[in-house]
Amino acid sequence: MPTVSVKWQKELFPAVEIDTSQPPYVFKCQLYDLTGVPPERQKIMVKGGLLKDDADWSTLGVKDGQKLMMMGTADEIVKAPEKGPVFMEDLPEEEQVVAVGHSAGLYNLGNTCYMNSTLQCLHSVPELKSALSSYTNSGRSNELDQYSHLLTVATRDLFSDLDRNVRPVAPLQFLSVLRKKYPQFAQQHNGVYMQQDAEECWTQLMYTLSQSLRSSESSEVSGTVKALFGIDLVSRIHCAESGEESSEMESVYALKCHISQDVNHLHEGLKHGLKSELEKVSPSLGRSAIYSKESRINDLPRYLTVQFVRFFWKRESNQKAKILRKVDYPLELDVYEFCSDELRQKLQAPRQTLRELENAKLGLKTQDKNSGSKENDANIPKSEGPSDNSGEPSAITHEKATSSEKKVQLTGIYDLVAVLTHKGRSADSGHYVGWVKQESGKWIQFDDDNPSPQREEDITRLSGGGDWHMAYICMYKARVVSM
Amino acid sequence: MESLKYRLLGSEGDIGSWGHEYVRNLAGEISQEFAKRQYDDMPIDALMELVQQIVAFHMKHNAEPEAVDLLMEVEDLDLLIEHIDATNYKRACLYLTSSSSYLPSPDDVLALDIAYTIYMKFEDYASALRIALFIDNNQYVKQVYTSTEDLLLKKQFSYIIARHGLALELDDDIAADDDDKEALQDIVNNVKLSEGYLTLARDVEVMEPKSPEDIYKVHLIDGRASASSSLDSARQNLAATFVNAFVNAGFGQDKLMTVLSESSSGGSSGSWLFKNKEHGKASAAASLGMILLWDVDSGLAQIDKYLHSNDNHVVAGALLGVGIVNCGVKDDCDPALALLIDFVNKEDTVIRIGAILGLGIAYAGSHKDEVRVRLSLIMGDPKVPLEVLVFSAITLGLVYVGSCNEEIAQSIIFALMDRSDTELNEPLTRLLPVALGLLYLGKQDNVEATAEVSKTFNEKIRKYCDVTLLSLAYAGTGNVLKVQKLLGYCAQHLDKGETHQGPAVLGIALIAMAEELGLDMAIRSLEHLLQYGEQNIRRAVPLALGILCISNPKVNVMDTLSRLSHDTDGDVSMAAIISLGLIGAGTNNARIAGMLRNLSSYYYKEAGHLFCVRIAQGLVHLGKGLLTLLPYHSDRFLLSPTALAGLVTVLHACLDMKSIILGKYHYMLYILVLAMQPRMLMTVDENLKPLSVPVRVGQAVDVVGQAGRPKTITGFQTHSTPVLLAAGERAELATEKYIPLTPVLEGFVILRENPDYQDDR
C-alpha cells in the first residue's frame, strides 16, 4: 500500500494511503473526508491524464511518496441567471433611441439646414408632439386649405420618424409639402435650391400649425399652438404732440430682440423691441404725427420664443446683412419686468411659491448634508425647480394635473431649451444649426444628420461677436408651479 | 600600400615603436592586401605574422575594437582568444556581440561563438549563458551549467532561462543532488513567479483591484460623458471584461470576476459573467485565468467551478482560462494537460477551441509531445471544422515554436492544400500560414524547403504564405536584405485583390526590431509607406509601428499613431488605436492614456472603434503598469521566442480586425499573455528571499567601443529594490555590500555578500 502526498490548492496532505486493491473511487472518498470535495468533482492528476474512477492502480504505477495534485472545489456551480440581461445590440432600432439619449438627425437635402434646425427645435416641445399625434388625417375641417393639412400631417409623421430612428432621417415628404404650401422656399438659383431664412420657415410653420391644430376637433384645448407659443401684448400708443392715448391688443408668436449700439444683453434688446415709434394720422391734429408705442406682455405662453433681429435689408448689396454684435442671453430668463400690471398681479402668488419651494429645497439640502445621508435626496418633494426640468412630465401629465386638484401656474421665469443658430454673413447663406436640450438635461447639437452632445457652458457662448455660430432664435420653457 | 610593402621588406622590430597611427594604417593596408591575395590565391603567411603582432599591440593598448575589426577582415577571429586577458575580455566581447548583428549570416554566429568561448575561458558564466541563449544552442547552455559547481550561480542561470521562456529539462549532469535539481527546475519552471510579482506589487502599493471605470476616467473627459444608459451593451461589457483582465492581470483579485467567489451565496454569483453574450461569456470566464495568472494552485481552484457549467461558452472560457493560468509556469503534475486534453475531442466546437487554445498558451515553446500527438489527429481529419483546424495549427505553432518540426509543417501544408476555395477565403485562414511560420520563427534559412513547397499552393494564399514564412523566419534578425525584399513587395500595385502586403509590412517591423539602428530606419520606411502605399498597406502600418515600439512609447511614433487614429479609413484608425495600446503597454503612460480618453469620446458612437479604444486603455494599464509586452530582455539582447510568437499571432489576427477581433474570436487577444512579463528588478538573497538594496536606475548608454570606462547609465535616480524598469533603462547596484551573480540587472537577481566589503562606519 503506497502512501502518497496530495496537494490540494495551497494545502498539502502528507501520507495518504492508497489501497491498491480497491478502485480509485475509494481513494477519492478518502480525499472527500480530507477536503470536503465530492468525489465526482475531484480531478486528480496522474501521469498521462486524470485519474479515472475505474482505473487500475497497477497500470498507473503510483510510487510510494509520490506527490499527487488534486483539483476541484466544493463551490457551488455557477448557474446562469434565469433572466439574462437585455443588450442594447439586441433591441430593435426604435428602442435603441432611448439608449443613445437623443433623437435622430435630419439629412440635408440641399441647402435645407434652415428647415432641419427649425424642425429640431420644435421637435423638442413634447406638448406640440402630442397635439400633433392626435391630429388625424380625416380631421381636416373645411376652413383649412389642403396644403396646410398636408403640411401638418407631414410634420406629425416626421416627428414620429425622428422619435423612432437612431440613424438620420430624410425629410423628403415634409420638404416637398413645405415647398408646395410656401413656394418661396422653392426658389432656385443656378438650378439649385437656395438657402432660406430659418426665421421665415419657423414663422410660417408655426402659423400653419396654429391654423390646423386649432381647427382640428381632436385637440380639446382651443388653439393649442396659441396656448403653447402665443404671447399676448397690450400696447399703449401715445402721441406726445397731441396727448392722445389709446391701447390695443395683439397676439404674437415671438418676442423680438432688437440689436443696436447699446444692446449687450437680451434684456436690453427685448426692452428695445417692445418700444417703437410710428407715424400715423392723428385725428386731433389732423395731420400725421409721431406716436410712441409701448407694449407689455399680457399673457405668457408655455414656450417663449425670442428672435434676435440680426438681419436687416441692405439695399446696396441687395441682401439680408447680419449684425454680428454679441448679445448675451441667459439660461434662465425672467420676463416679469415686461409684463403688464395685471399679469404681474397674477404672477405674484406663483412666484412666491416658487421661491419658497426653492428655499425649502436648499434648506433641505443643507440638512441632508448635516445628517450625511445621500439617499434622502431622492425624497425631496418634486418642485418644478431649475434643476429638475429633466424629469419634467410631458404635456399629457400637465393636462391631467390641471384637471385634477392642482393647477399649474406660470411664474414668468423661463429656462432655455432650444437655440437656433446661424453661422455666416447673410440670412440666405451660411449654415443653420439647432441646439436642443434633451429631457435628460443634456444639450445636443443637431447639425443636420450629425447630432453630437455639447456642454451647457458652450450653449451660452453662442451669443455672437465673431464668426462662430450665433443665436438667431431662442426658445425658453416656462418654469411652473402647481398650486 | 607603401607602409605594408616596406614593413614586409624591412626590419622586423617592435611594431609599436612607430606609434599608433602607423599601426592603424598598417592594419588598413593589410585588410586590402589580404582580400587581394585571397583573390589571387597567394600565400598569406607573412601577412598573418604581422596580424599577430598588430592584434597583440592593440589588445595591450585598449584598442580591442580595432583588433576585432582586423581579425574579422582576415577571417581569423580565433586568434583573439590567445591575446585576450582578464582586463580586456569584457570590452572585446561587448564589441563582438554588438557587431554581430551587422554581420552577414555565418559570420555573426562565428563572432558570438568566439565571445562565448572567451566568456567561458574567463569564467564569466552568466554572460556566456546569454550568448548561448542568443544563438539558441542547448548544448552550450548545458555546458555553462556543468562548468561550475556553484549552486547559487546555477540558480541565477535558471532565473535567466525562466525569463527567456526556454523549456529546459534539467538532467543529472547539471545537478547531481535531487533536491538541488528540484530547486533549480522549480526556478526554470517559474513556480515562484507569481510570488515575486505580488511582492513587487505590494512594494509599490498597487494591490488594490481596479475596475474598468477607474481606467476609463470618464470624469476627465470634457462634456461628452457617454450616454449613461441603464441598458447593458454586450460589446461594452466585453470590452470591460478585457480591460479588467489586462489591468488586474496576475494580481489574483479584481472587482468583477473574483469578488463573487467569496460571496458565493447564490443569486448574484456569476453575475458579471452573465452580463456577457454568447462567446463573450467565453472571454469573461477566461479572464479569470488572466487575473490569476501564474498562480496555478489557487487559480485552478477558482476556475474549477466554471468547468461544470452547463453553458458551453462558459466551459470553453474556463478551459482557456486553465491554459492562461499555466502560461509560462510548468508543474510536475501537468495539470493543464490533464484537464484540457480530453476536451479537445468534444462535440462542441467552442469547447474544442477553448481547450486547444488553452493547451497552446500553457505549453508554448515546450515541444510537448502529448499535445502534438493529439492535435496531429485533428489536423489530419478532413472533416474537422475550419476554425478548430486553424486553432489546432496555431497551438502546434506555439508549442513547437522555432522547432522546424517537419511533421507538423507537413500536416499544416496538407491542410492548406486540401481545403476548398471557399474555406481558404474565410478570414481565419490567414492564421494557417502564421502557424506554419511559427515553426520556423527566427530560424532563417531552415525555412527554405517549406517555402519552396508553399509555392505550389492555391494562388489565393500562395503569396500570403510566402511572405508570412519569410517574415517569421527572419523575425528578430535585423536582416537588411530581407527587409528590402519585403519593401519590394510593398512597392507593387496589386489589382487582383491580393492581401499579402499586410504581412509584408508587419514582416518589415518583425525583422527590423532586432536593433536600434534598424528600428529607426524601419520607422522612417513605414512613414513612406504611409504616404505612398495603398490602402491595404496603410492598414498594416500602425500595427507594424506597434510591434516596433512595443511597451516603448517613443514620442514620434506616438504622434504618428495619434494622427492615424483619426484616419478616415476605419481599419487604419482601429489598428492605430490598438497600436497606441501596444506601444504604451504596461507603462501607464499619461499622454497615451489622455489620447485614448479623447478617442473614447470621439468614437463614442462607433461600437467597433470604442471597443478598440477600451482594449488599448486596458493594455496601457497592463498589470497596473507592472507588466511589459516587450519580447526582448537582458539589456534588449535576448529575444524570447514564445513572447514573439504570441505577439505575431495577435498582430496577424488584428490585420482583419473586423472579422476576427471584433467578430467572435476576440479571445485571441489573450494570446498576448505569452509576452507578458513583470518589468522589474527583484534582488534576492542567497536563500532566494527578497532583499532590498539601493540601486541606480537610469537611461542606458551605448558604451560599445568607447574609450576608458564610461558610465553605462545617465540621468539616474536611486531607488531601493524591487524596482520597475522602463524600456531603455538599466540598473546598477548602488552599494558595494553585495555582488550580483549576473552582469545584467533585470528580473530576479541573486546577490551574494561581498567578502571584501567594509562598512564605512
Keywords:
heterodimer; A: alpha+beta; eight-stranded mixed beta sheet; 21 strands; 31% helix; 28% strand; B: 761 residues; three-stranded antiparallel beta sheet; 37 helices; proteasome (chain B); enzyme regulator activity (chain B); RPN1_N (chain B); ubl conjugation (chain B)
Give the arrangement of secondary structure elements.
The complex is a heterodimer of chains A (483) and B (761).
Chain A: E1 3-8, E2 11-17, H1 24-35, E3 43-46, E4 49-50, H2 57-60, E5 67-71, H3 93-100, H4 113-123, H5 126-133, H6 146-164, H7 172-181, E6 188-189, E7 192-193, H8 198-215, H9 224-229, E8 231-239, E9 245-252, E10 255-258, H10 266-274, E11 275-282, E12 287-299, E13 303-309, E14 311-314, E15 319-322, E16 332-334, H11 341-371, H12 395-403, E17 408-423, E18 431-437, E19 443-447, E20 450-454, H13 456-460, E21 470-482
Parallel strand pairs in A: 1-5, 10-13
Antiparallel strand pairs in A: 1-2, 3-4, 3-5, 6-7, 8-9, 8-12, 11-12, 13-21, 14-15, 16-17, 17-18, 17-21, 18-19, 19-20
Chain B: H1 2-9, H2 20-40, H3 45-60, H4 64-73, H5 79-83, H6 89-100, H7 105-121, H8 125-134, H9 138-146, H10 151-164, H11 178-188, H12 193-203, H13 212-216, H14 234-247, H15 259-262, H16 279-291, H17 296-307, H18 312-325, H19 335-340, H20 349-362, H21 369-380, H22 386-399, H23 406-418, H24 421-424, H25 431-439, H26 448-454, H27 459-473, H28 480-491, H29 501-512, H30 516-532, H31 535-548, H32 555-564, H33 570-583, H34 590-602, H35 607-620, E1 627-628, E2 632-633, E3 638-639, H36 641-654, H37 660-664, E4 677-678, E5 680-684, E6 694-700, E7 713-720, E8 723-724, E9 729-733, E10 738-740, E11 747-753
Parallel strand pairs in B: 5-11
Antiparallel strand pairs in B: 1-4, 2-3, 5-8, 6-7, 6-9, 10-11
Helix pairs in contact in B: 3-4, 6-7, 7-8, 8-9, 8-10, 10-11, 14-16, 14-35, 16-18, 17-18, 18-20, 20-22, 21-22, 21-23, 22-25, 23-25, 25-27, 25-36, 27-29, 28-29, 29-30, 29-31, 30-31, 31-33, 32-33, 33-35, 34-35
